[in-house]
């Protein structure tokens, strides 16, 4: 039987990697921790912004509807800027405070976890679970609005008049926020997490948890589950409560639970209840292993979680000891550690006596250890901030995590005397002061527990432990004293610095010659006082002095100490110790606490050094016992050594390096360590050994002796000692101070004698008579200890304290000296004098107190030397300040001491200035208070209460007072109010103008011209407004009087949500827009207007959303809104249009128009998604219908407001490219085939004169060839070489990594060498791709290169010249559809085609091409091919394959082209023996296809997906298959994980014979926003996933390979460049697989969208855009067909839309363009062999026309067909007799609208003046409506017309298409026609609606009708007009109607029409001029210019 896996959290612990919060008097984490360490009580009386005490407070707890609580913890008001989160400002009043503040804290927790790193978490794998409980205050005023009818009824019942009752209800309702569309989400608790996930783009789970006051830890439990189950990689969790409303106070007051004394006293004997608080605390959690891997900062490790319910208990809210014990036991079992390993418990601790007693009892029971009491510090954050309800647990968790992180035992305040349950023998004690958390040797890992309990019997407990990390010590977060040091070259400059408020110098030394000044300040206020004192001293006399110091701690020196001044380190001995010595220094300077950690490690468990030095708080007896214990040598000496060592280490870190050291007594041991003679371990061991040895008694009861200090000179002391021979001098401390020692009684007698004689003397608090024979017993054990350690030579001189003793004589001698020092007297005086004589001038004392500092000054003189202590004793200042002051003084002296504040937290970053829409969120009623304030301000402005203008009607909707329900009366009142506002506005304007004029004239200046113009403009505007206002008054008067005509009534305001929209005055600075209703700019005014407006019964709401949708629907349907006046682009003022656009954006967001900055992001900053961007475009289009619809779809590409404005300006300023929905896209099945392209028509002058290219160089032969070709044509080529490719040349930038940031930086460097980039070139050399992983990496990198290229090329395109993005591959010259030579890995490069096609849609002005070259193409040919392609006039071809002979591009055809090899006998059919592996097959269209497939094929299936097998969807898919009688299995694996795939498939590999790869991840973001992280899953799922499957199964074994791709790759798609790339790469890969394994049945399927296979909104968007979607029935039927035996293998099959739904729109430049076409080989075209004159080919007139039409359409992206031609004229024919030009040029010039083009074909061999042909062509989206002709009934025989055999006309068989004569008279001929359209120059002479061969039949008809009149047909030379309605049918019958018009001797004019047999016109030539010439004349004409004077002559007919 398998063992159950260990699922405890201890096996997979979770790290806290980020924290943030806001709590009472703590807007952030730093302030919160600072308040904790300082022991600050942050509760206060209820602020009035929360609720008024006079309304609800009553000290009587039983007073109804009153609370006896008046204090609590309240969040500091926060200024919230909706711009930072992309929230519409108008939504704030409807959004709960907790939701808004949660956004702030969530953002901060991610910033905290980031620590300045970008991309530290994956949003797709990040979730948020928050604890939220209780009511949402936002609901209260909304609900209160609904009580207005009850108020009216109550007043009416009390006899009030109806009008008065309604007035009162109006007064009540008017100040309450209204219900809006934001109200519902604004009051929902779960939206707190949802809004965080939405605004921060988090894609994993998001929800809230309500477990009452335990909600935070319940949320943590849920978040941890997401992590350990691998559903997320990062979770934000915690608790949120911002609701100390009167509701909350009432709830706690009536329980009752609130403190009567107004203080929270957890675990205090006088505790009497709690106070409620507010808070929002969040933590970022990660699996510990991941956090370590990612080098995150780890605050603490969450090791265990336990929970329980009380079950049947006394009451629903009574605490239960048993329930708590259950949760505790479960937590420590989960943590895998004993409860007694914990040293800190952040308890629930509410301050209620019963609750606290139960909790302490439970803790003592579970954590108690016999013989080890008071080892657990218990506390509660509630003592400082109140009970934060849902956030209480988060606050406690953050407090505990910070305690572990900073190694501090935090205090609990308001505890005077512990409660009875906290006993002296119990495990817990109440910690009432912040103490260093020194590591206990019995508990080597610091651990803490956190409890949270909630109503309903909910109990939670969390176990945290510290994290040991090899990272630099974290900086101290709480406020600590800070050293401030300034310096300058001289005192004057120093004074200037100080006066200017310059910041202190940090991190650098002070030049010796500089003046310097410094001090240590406790806080900013203290700093200000000290700075003022220093400035004052410098101003008076201080600048003239060399040095000085002030009692306040200010130190100054003019220069550094003289060079050569030596510095000594002094180390104090026993006698200076005191309880809590250095405590504040340990909290502020981590090296000190670390020194105690090390010293404490040698203590026995339960009896540690730390408990002695920093004892748990207690009563006086406890304190006395601790002091007595500290005086023992076994404690005192290690403690003194630890403090001194920590201080010394800190200064050494700063740069302090003594020239010599001296220790006093025990300090001599520390001095040896400091000098390097002893290492750390040896020092600690000897310090403990020395103390133990000296503490031991030689025998039981022996007198240890005593010591006394006496203040007298040497001779005086000697005289006294003469009477006390049993005593001796132990220390000579100073010339006037000695210490004597001996027997205890003798010392007592000595002290008594001295005092009697008036000599100051005092017994010292020491444990023995040191340095006397009484401690001789200690020498042996101490000597033994010394023998166990190594002594090294001191690195600096160590001065021995005893006379004649020396160190540095060798290890053995030094050991003897150190041991002997126990007995030898200390002559400190002589040693100090000796050091002074040796040049020591600075003495720094280390250890507790400052005794040695004073002794040095008394010995050498206070002014002779500088003595600096690092501590000032028990009653001295803050020990942290003293230590930092010591360091600062050394720096002032000139020592190289820097970085004194290195452990201080850096100063908080300055918050950016808030925007104008930022709001101060003060209390949960902020919206209500703000609304009330706005109404009060309105009343003040109007001088009358607003309520007097309003009364509530019977239905509760306010109306103007005194008017009743009459709408005209209401209109009058509204007008009156508007009149008052108008006058107020005019008055304000006049006042501002007067003040402005005064300010300009006070000093004699007159108003300048600009001001005068502005005043004039304002005056004219005011007059206009006044006139409009007067007219409005007249209209109202007419309406009220009944005299106005209905036609003169003002327009009705549009209705929104059943209310008339308000029309307030435009904001100052707004540009009035004709025809556009002004947008509300003041929310108070808008609110007033909304409430005044009457409801209209039966009127449906037409809110903004409905209006937007109608605009979008109209845009999709191309509804031109004919009721609106159509404008011309030239009539639109761009400035006005931009203001319209900005107003539309403002209306979407609630921002004022003036706040919309150009660099604001549309989505991130304003909260507008891509669909809304299209809606903005739709609204612009609706207001300006003349704008082309397709241009506006580009609005979805905009990222910023500036982008939108730029796009709009470009629409109005110049024709440009864009996108359009093609509409009418057919749905069906087609095959990808290749169409041959004609040679390139080369644009001239397409690039700048000195073009520049940027190439991503992979070091392959392809890149070399392309670069050489470009440089040979004058291009400057900047190269970015990929990693691993050496850079070469000055124009090369090597990439050091594949990262986007590296690419960004190197592109920027490259751009610095070129102000413009014309071409971005992305080649992939075939030789540089070795494996699939490398190919995928190169494709991803290519995507990032394209992202960077887009911005560069858009800038270039704006200059009016071509900017190009080109990729080049070496697949097979057939774009990979011929199989890439059977190399699937190489074929992956074909994915660049998908990238190019999507790039084209997202950068529509940029020329784009994916070029594939045959791998064997010569380098020079490859380069020439590139040069031709980048100059191609055709912009509609995005993908080209070249094999050296032909150019081809992919297209769709009805029949397969069969480019790939196949096995003999055809592909293998599916049989019952086959088993298909299906990736991604457990849901969606894949599951549908599999179900359908089982109808035909009973093969087996193995489904593979990421979801677990027990998932409901997986089970459902398996059941659906099995119910059809097939075997179906499921394996769980991520296809991107090769190892997981191989392992999952191993049991099934032998039976799998086919693969259906359908797994995919959809990307959806603009190319400009794509990253490697966002693209990786999209690309890897398709490509790496397929490769991993093939590797696991072995491709040679497979019989079937089916892949599901998307039309997004075939056509490209916006926001899906990565997806398109992946799909195209996969398709080419499968083609190569077919080529590599001909027996394989490879089936690449390209699907279009499915109905029901996508989100409903996406489906609707496709439908509205005219894109057809597949039904399930149609799609599965197609799939069954292609899986049948008749379907050819390897053919790329498209099922869905068989044409692109998006096309680029291209415009010709206003100045026109010229393209050159080579005529080489044209004479050999088969069609021209049948069109000869005098033995040589003649290009027919239709060929000339077709060449022009082809060029025009291709230059415009083939977006619009040519539908009409005018003024056609042949100037000189193309007669290919060998003397013809080798090239012709096409010069195209558009008209202003761009839809008409003047085209001229001219000689291009150096004589551009020779015109061959010219025409005016008209393009349109659709041809005009075709007319119809009445045709005679006929039965076609199919027999060619006899003109061909009779040689009436000279056309050969390929052009012989005229058939039966259907009708004929003298001037009219009707013929049937049918002709297979012959190939001609690969289509270079054809257009979308025009075939030169088929259209030539019309000219043949004209020749025949002319021949019937004149006996000769002549040649066509011009035409007035050609109308093209539809293509002429290929090899299908149609009718030609030729009619002769006016005729002359020289010519005949004809009208020729081609019709369908039913009469619908297809093509019509009007005014076709047939010139009457014979063959000889025709030849002469064709070699010169056509002339109207040529005589006619009989002969054969030509149609040249």
Automatic annotation (TrEMBL):
Ranges for domain Carrier: 1132-1212
Gene3D superfamilies according to UniProt: 3.40.47.10, ACP-like, Malonyl-Coenzyme A Acyl Carrier Protein, domain 2, NAD(P)-binding Rossmann-like Domain, Polyketide synthase dehydratase
UniProt-annotated stretches for the region Disordered: 1046-1081, 1443-1472
Pathway the protein acts in: Antibiotic biosynthesis
Pro residues composition-biased segments: 1065-1077
CDD domains with a match to the protein in the record: PKS (cd00833)
Alphabetically ordered keywords of this record: Antibiotic biosynthesis, Phosphopantetheine, Phosphoprotein, Transferase
InterPro entries: Ac_transferase_dom_sf, ACP-like_sf, Acyl_transferase_dom, Acyl_Trfase/lysoPLipase, Ketoacyl_synth_C, Ketoacyl_synth_N, KR_dom, Malonyl_transacylase_ACP-bd
Residue ranges annotated for the Ketosynthase family 3 (KS3) domain, each copy included: 11-466
Active site positions, chain numbering: 1731 (proton acceptor), 1896 (proton donor)
PKS/mFAS DH domain location: 1699-1979
Glycoprotein as UniProt keyword: no
Annotated stretches, region: N-terminal hotdog fold: 1699-1824
Chain segments carrying region C-terminal hotdog fold: 1835-1979
Domain of life: Bacteria
Protein name: Uncharacterized protein
Organism: Streptomyces blastmyceticus
């Amino acid at each position: 039987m398998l063992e159950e896996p260990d699922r405890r959290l201890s096996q997979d612990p979770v790290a806290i990697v980020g924290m943030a919060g806001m709590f009472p008097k703590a807007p952030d984490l730093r302030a919160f921790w600072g308040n904790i360490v300082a022991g600050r009580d942050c509760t206060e009386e209820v602020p009035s912004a929360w609720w008024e005490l006079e309304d609800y407070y009553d000290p009587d707890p039983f007073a109804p509807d009153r609370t006896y609580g008046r204090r609590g913890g309240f969040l500091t008001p926060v200024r919230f800027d909706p711009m930072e989160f992309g929230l519409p400002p108008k939504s704030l009043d409807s959004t709960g405070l907790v939701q808004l503040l949660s956004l702030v804290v969530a953002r901060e927790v991610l910033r905290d976890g980031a620590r300045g790193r970008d991309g530290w978490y994956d949003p797709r794998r990040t979730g948020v679970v928050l604890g939220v409980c209780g009511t949402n205050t936002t609901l209260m005023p909304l609900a209160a609005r609904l009580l207005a009818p009850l108020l009216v009824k109550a007043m009416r019942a009390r006899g009030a008049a109806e009008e008065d009752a309604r007035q009162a209800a109006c007064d009540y309702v008017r100040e309450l926020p209204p219900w809006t569309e934001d109200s519902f989400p604004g009051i929902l608790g779960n939206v707190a997490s949802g809004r965080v996930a939405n605004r921060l783009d988090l894609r994993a789970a998001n929800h809230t948890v309500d477990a009452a006051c335990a909600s935070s830890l319940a949320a943590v439990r849920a978040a941890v589950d997401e992590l350990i189950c691998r559903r997320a990689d990062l979770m934000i969790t915690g608790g949120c409560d911002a609701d100390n409303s009167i509701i909350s106070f009432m709830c706690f007051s009536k329980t009752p639970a609130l403190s009567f004394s107004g203080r929270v006293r957890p675990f205090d004997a006088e505790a009497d209840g709690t106070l409620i608080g507010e808070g929002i605390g969040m933590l970022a959690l990660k699996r510990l292993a991941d956090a370590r891997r990612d080098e995150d900062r780890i605050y603490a490790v969450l090791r265990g979680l336990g929970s329980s319910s009380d079950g049947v208990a006394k009451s629903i809210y009574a605490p239960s000891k048993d329930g708590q014990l259950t949760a505790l036991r479960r937590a420590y079992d989960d943590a895998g550690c004993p409860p007694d390993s914990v040293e800190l418990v952040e308890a629930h601790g509410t301050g209620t006596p019963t609750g606290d007693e139960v909790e302490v009892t439970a803790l003592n029971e579970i954590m108690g250890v016999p013989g080890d009491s008071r080892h657990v510090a218990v506390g509660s954050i509630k003592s400082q901030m109140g009970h934060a309800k849902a956030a209480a647990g988060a606050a406690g968790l953050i407090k505990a995590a910070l305690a572990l992180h900073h190694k501090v035992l935090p205090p609990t305040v308001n505890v005077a005397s512990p409660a009875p349950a906290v006993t002296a023998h119990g495990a817990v004690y109440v910690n009432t002061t912040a103490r260093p958390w020194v590591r206990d040797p019995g508990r080597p890992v610091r651990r803490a527990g956190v409890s949270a309990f909630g109503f309903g019997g909910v109990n939670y407990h969390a176990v945290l432990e510290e994290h040991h990390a090899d990272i630099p010590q974290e900086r101290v977060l709480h406020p600590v004293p800070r050293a401030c040091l300034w310096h300058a070259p001289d005192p004057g400059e120093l004074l200037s610095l100080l006066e200017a408020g310059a910041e202190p110098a940090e991190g650098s030394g002070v030049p010796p010659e500089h003046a310097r000044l410094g001090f240590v300040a406790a806080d900013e206020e203290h700093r200000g006082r000290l700075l003022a004192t220093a400035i004052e001293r410098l101003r008076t006399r201080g600048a003239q002095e060399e040095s000085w110091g002030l009692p306040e701690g200010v130190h100054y020196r003019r220069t550094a100490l003289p060079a050569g001044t030596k510095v000594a380190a002094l180390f104090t001995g026993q006698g200076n110790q005191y309880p809590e010595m250095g405590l504040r220094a340990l909290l502020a300077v981590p090296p000190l606490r670390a020194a105690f950690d090390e010293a404490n490690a040698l203590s026995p468990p339960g009896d540690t050094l730390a408990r002695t030095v920093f004892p748990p708080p207690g009563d006086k007896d406890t304190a006395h016992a601790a002091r007595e214990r500290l005086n023992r040598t076994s404690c005192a000496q290690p403690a003194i050594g630890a403090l001194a060592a920590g201080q010394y280490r800190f200064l050494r870190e700063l740069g302090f390096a003594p020239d010599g050291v001296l220790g006093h007594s025990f300090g001599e041991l520390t001095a040896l360590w400091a000098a390097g003679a002893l290492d750390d371990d040896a020092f600690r061991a000897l310090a403990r050994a020395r103390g133990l040895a000296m503490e031991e008694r030689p025998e039981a009861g022996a007198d240890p002796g005593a010591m006394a200090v006496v203040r007298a000179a040497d001779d005086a002391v000697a005289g006294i000692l003469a009477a006390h021979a049993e005593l001796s001098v132990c220390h000579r401390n100073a010339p006037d101070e000695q210490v004597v020692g001996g027997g205890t009684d003798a010392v007592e007698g000595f002290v008594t004698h001295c005092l009697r004689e008036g000599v100051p003397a005092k017994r010292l608090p020491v444990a023995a008579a040191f340095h006397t024979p009484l401690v001789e017993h200690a020498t042996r054990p101490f000597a033994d200890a010394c023998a166990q350690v190594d002594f090294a030579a001191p690195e600096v001189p160590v001065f021995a304290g005893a006379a004649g003793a020396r160190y540095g004589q060798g290890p053995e001698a030094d050991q003897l000296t150190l041991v002997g020092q126990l007995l030898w007297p200390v002559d400190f005086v002589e040693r100090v004098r000796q050091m002074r004589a040796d040049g020591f001038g600075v003495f720094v004392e280390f250890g507790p107190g400052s005794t040695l500092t004073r002794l040095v000054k008394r010995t050498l003189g206070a002014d002779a030397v500088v003595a600096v202590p690092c501590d000032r004793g028990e009653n001295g200042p803050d020990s942290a300040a003293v230590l930092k002051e010591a360091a600062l003084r050394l720096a002032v002296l000139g020592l190289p001491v820097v970085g004194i504040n290195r452990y201080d937290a850096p100063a908080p970053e300055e918050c950016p200035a808030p925007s104008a829409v930022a709001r101060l969120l003060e209390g949960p009623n902020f919206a209500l208070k703000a609304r009330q304030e706005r109404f009060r301000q309105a009343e003040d402005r109007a001088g009358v209460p607003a309520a007097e203008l309003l009364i509530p009607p019977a239905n509760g909707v306010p109306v103007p007072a005194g008017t009743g329900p009459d709408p005209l009366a209401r209109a009058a009142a509204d007008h009156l109010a508007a009149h008052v506002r108008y006058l107020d506005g005019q008055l304000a304007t006049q006042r501002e103008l007067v003040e402005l004029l005064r300010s300009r004239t006070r000093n004699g200046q007159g108003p300048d011209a600009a001001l005068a113009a502005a005043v004039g403009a304002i005056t004219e505007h005011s007059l206009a407004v006044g006139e409009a206002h007067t007219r409005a008054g007249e209209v109202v008067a007419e309406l009220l009087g009944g005299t106005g005509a209905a036609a003169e009534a003002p327009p009705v305001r549009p209705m929104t949500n059943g209310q008339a929209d308000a029309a307030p005055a435009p904001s100052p600075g707004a540009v009035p827009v004709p025809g556009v209703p002004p947008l509300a700019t003041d929310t108070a005014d808008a609110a007033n207007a909304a409430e005044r407006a009457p409801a209209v019964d039966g009127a449906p709401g037409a809110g903004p959303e409905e209006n937007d949708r109608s605009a979008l629907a109209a845009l999709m349907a191309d509804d031109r809104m004919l009721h609106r006046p159509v404008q011309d682009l030239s009539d639109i003022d761009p400035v006005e249009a931009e203001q319209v656009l900005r107003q539309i954006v403002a209306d979407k967001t609630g921002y004022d128009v003036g706040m919309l900055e150009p660099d604001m992001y549309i989505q991130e900053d304003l909260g507008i998604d891509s669909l809304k961007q299209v809606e903005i475009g739709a609204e612009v289009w609706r207001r300006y219908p003349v704008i082309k619809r397709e241009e506006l779809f580009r609005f979805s590409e905009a990222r910023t407001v500036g982008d939108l404005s730029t796009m709009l300006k470009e629409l109005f300023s110049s024709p440009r490219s864009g996108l359009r929905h093609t509409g009418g896209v057919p749905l069906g099945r087609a095959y990808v085939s290749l169409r041959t392209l004609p040679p390139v028509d080369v644009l001239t002058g397409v690039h700048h004169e000195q073009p520049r290219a940027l190439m991503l160089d992979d070091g392959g032969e392809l890149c070399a060839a392309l670069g050489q070709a470009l440089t040979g044509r004058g291009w400057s080529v900047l190269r970015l070489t990929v990693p691993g490719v050496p850079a070469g040349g000055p124009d090369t930038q090597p990439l050091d990594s594949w990262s986007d940031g590296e690419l960004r930086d190197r592109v920027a460097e490259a751009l610095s060498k070129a102000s413009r980039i014309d071409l971005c070139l992305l080649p992939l050399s075939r030789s540089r791709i070795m494996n699939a992983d490398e190919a995928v990496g190169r494709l991803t990198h290519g995507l990032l290169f394209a992202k960077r290229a887009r911005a560069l090329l858009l800038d270039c395109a704006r200059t009016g010249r071509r900017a190009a993005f080109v990729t080049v591959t070496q697949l097979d010259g057939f774009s990979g559809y011929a199989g890439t030579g059977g190399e699937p890995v190489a074929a992956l490069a074909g994915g660049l085609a998908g990238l190019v096609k999507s790039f084209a849609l997202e950068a529509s002005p940029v020329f784009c091409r994916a070029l594939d070259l045959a791998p064997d193409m010569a380098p020079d040919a490859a380069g020439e091919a590139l040069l031709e392609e980048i100059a191609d006039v055709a912009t509609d071809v995005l993908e080209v394959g070249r094999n050296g002979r032909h150019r081809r591009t992919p297209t769709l055809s009805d029949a397969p082209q069969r480019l790939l090899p196949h096995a003999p006998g055809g592909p293998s059919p599916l049989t019952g023996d086959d088993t298909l592996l299906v990736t991604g097959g457990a849901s969606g269209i894949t599951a549908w296809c599999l179900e359908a497939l089982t109808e035909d094929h009973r093969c087996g299936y193995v489904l593979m997906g990421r979801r677990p097998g027990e998932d409901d969807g997986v089970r459902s898919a398996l059941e659906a298959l099995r119910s059809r009688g097939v075997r179906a299995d499921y394996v769980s694996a991520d296809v991107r994980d090769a190892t997981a795939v191989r392992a999952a498939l191993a049991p099934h590999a032998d039976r799998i014979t086919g693969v259906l790869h359908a797994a995919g991840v959809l990307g959806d973001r603009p190319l400009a926003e794509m990253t490697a992280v966002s693209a990786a899953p999209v690309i890897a799922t398709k490509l790496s996933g397929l490769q991993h499957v093939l590797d696991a199964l072995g491709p040679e074994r497979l019989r079937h390979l089916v892949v599901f791709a998307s039309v997004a790759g075939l056509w490209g798609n916006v926001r899906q460049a990565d997806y398109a790339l992946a799909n195209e790469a996969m398709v080419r890969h499968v083609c190569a697989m077919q080529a590599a394994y001909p027996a394989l049945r490879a089936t690449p399927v390209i699907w279009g969208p499915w109905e029901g296979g996508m989100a409903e909104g996406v489906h609707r968007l496709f439908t509205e855009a005219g894109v057809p979607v597949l039904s399930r029935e149609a799609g599965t039927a197609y799939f069954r067909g292609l899986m049948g035996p008749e379907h050819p293998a390897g053919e790329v099959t498209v099922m869905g839309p068989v044409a692109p739904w998006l096309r680029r729109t291209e415009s010709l430049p206003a100045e026109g363009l010229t393209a050159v076409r080579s005529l080489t080989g044209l004479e050999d075209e088969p069609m021209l062999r049948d069109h000869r004159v005098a033995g040589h080919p003649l290009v027919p007139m239709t060929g000339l026309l077709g060449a022009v039409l082809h060029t025009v359409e291709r230059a415009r992206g083939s977006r619009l067909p040519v539908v009409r031609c005018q003024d056609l004229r042949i100037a000189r024919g193309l007669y290919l007799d060998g003397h013809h030009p080798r090239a012709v040029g096409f010069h195209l010039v558009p008209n202003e609208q761009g839809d008409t083009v003047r085209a001229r074909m001219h000689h291009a061999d150096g004589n551009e003046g020779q015109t061959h042909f010219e025409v005016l062509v008209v393009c349109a989206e659709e041809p005009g409506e075709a007319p119809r002709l009445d045709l005679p009934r006929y039965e076609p025989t199919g027999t060619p017309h006899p003109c061909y055999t009779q040689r009436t006309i000279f056309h050969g068989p390929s052009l012989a298409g005229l058939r039966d004569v259907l009708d004929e008279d003298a001037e009219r001929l009707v013929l049937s026609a049918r002709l297979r359209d012959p190939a001609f120059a690969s289509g270079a002479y054809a257009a979308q609606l025009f075939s030169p061969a088929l259209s030539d039949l019309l000219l043949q008809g004209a020749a025949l009708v002319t021949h019937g009149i004149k006996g000769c047909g002549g040649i066509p030379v011009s035409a007035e007009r050609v109308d093209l309605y539809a293509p002429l049918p290929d090899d299908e019958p149609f009718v030609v109607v030729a009619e002769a018009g006016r005729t002359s001797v020289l010519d005949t004019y004809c009208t020729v029409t081609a019709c369908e047999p039913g009469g619908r016109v297809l093509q019509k030539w009007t005014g076709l001029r047939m010139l009457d010439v014979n063959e000889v004349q025709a030849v002469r004409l064709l070699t010169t210019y056509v002339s109207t004077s040529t005589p006619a002559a009989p002969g054969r007919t030509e149609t040249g």
